[in-house]
Amino acid sequence: MLNQRDYTAVFDASPDAMLVVDADGVIHDLNRQAVAMFGWSREELEGSEVERLIPDASRGRHRRHRRRYGESPKPRPMGEGLELEALRKDGTTIPVEISLSPSQLGPDQKHVICAVRDISTWRRMRRLSGMMIAAAEQERKHLSRELHDEFLQNLVALKIRVKLLADEKDDGERERARARIAEDIGGTILGVKRMIRGLLPPELDRQGLSSALGSVFRDIEDVYGFKVHASLSGLDGELDEVATLALYRIVQEAVGNAVRHAGVNEATVTFESAKGAVTATIRDEGCGFELPGAEALSGDGWVGLAGMRERAALVGGHVVVRTSPGGGTTIRASVPFQNTGGQSG
């Protein structure tokens, strides 16, 4: 049989925040995880109404639900599709799932044991998954257009030129036609290589982040005439493999956005290594834009910007965007040396 000390040890060992609440909604006990999650001390929460942990707008509804539950209590497990918001002492809210277990902890003492799980990371992963699916679909459409509009048309033109070459009687003209065909084939090969680098940059594995980004910037200048002013020295060896790929994709996306939307033909990319992180700053003096709120970022048209933030968050970093209509755009992406993973909160 477990004694009181053993019960307390099990209670505190739970990975979830645990609350013991009586029939009147008063908190009688809580574990260490609850203190850490909500930010209040044990003394502040014990004896207070459980609705203290509910945002103001939802407290009345929560009281009604709690009273109805008290009339016919039964176990309610996690994951029943009820995503709720919990209130921390500092006024911030976190998404949570809650399981309820009615319990008789003493003579005529009916209580409910509440397990509260912070699902911030899970929600972030679900949102990122949706954005990645949307981004992958956009990339497939882009590749389809590029293959059709550039490579397929080039191949059709080459086929026609080869047929004309076979019918050409003049030796000099035939040699000039052969040279043009060889030049076009070389250009097509370079285009295919650019596409391959965009999908899976081999330089990232073989030569490191600076070489991979250098290739991206050269390709952008060759294709779009867009100049990226960058200093790439000292980048390699400080980030682990996952963080390196995250920073590469963030910079690639940020520069690509400048090419497509800024309305200028150059941008500046700088890197700083300090305080245990590598920070990339991408700056253009273009048209800028009205930065949407956090909720709007998950909608159509903002997948790239939201994706940058999520990529950084998943390796323990962050992205800050400063922009305004007519004021240009600055994107700062910081990624830690050691991958710490996304943080909940």
Task: Give a short overview.
By secondary structure, this protein is of the alpha+beta class. It has helices at residues 4-13, 32-38, 42-45, 56-71, 120-167, 171-199, 202-206, 209-224, 241-261, 303-314; strands spanning 17-22, 27-30, 84-87, 93-106, 109-118, 227-230, 266-274, 277-284, 318-323, 329-336. The protein starts with a helix and ends in a 9-residue tail after the last strand.
How far do the termini sit from each other? 38 Å
**Largest sheet composition:** 5 strands, antiparallel
Biggest sheet strand order reads: 2-1-5-4-3
**Overall domain count:** 3
Mean model confidence by pLDDT: 82
What Rg is obtained from the alpha carbons, in whole angstroms?
29 Å
Unreliable sequence segments: 340-345
Count up the helices: 10
Task: Output the CATH class name of the largest domain.
Answer: Alpha Beta
Report the structural category.
alpha+beta
Order of helices and strands: HEEHHHEEEHHHHEHEEHEE
Instruction: Kindly state the percentage of residues in helix.
Output: 40-55%
Strand content: 15-25%
Could you say which overall geometry the principal axes of the C-alpha atoms support?
Answer: elongated
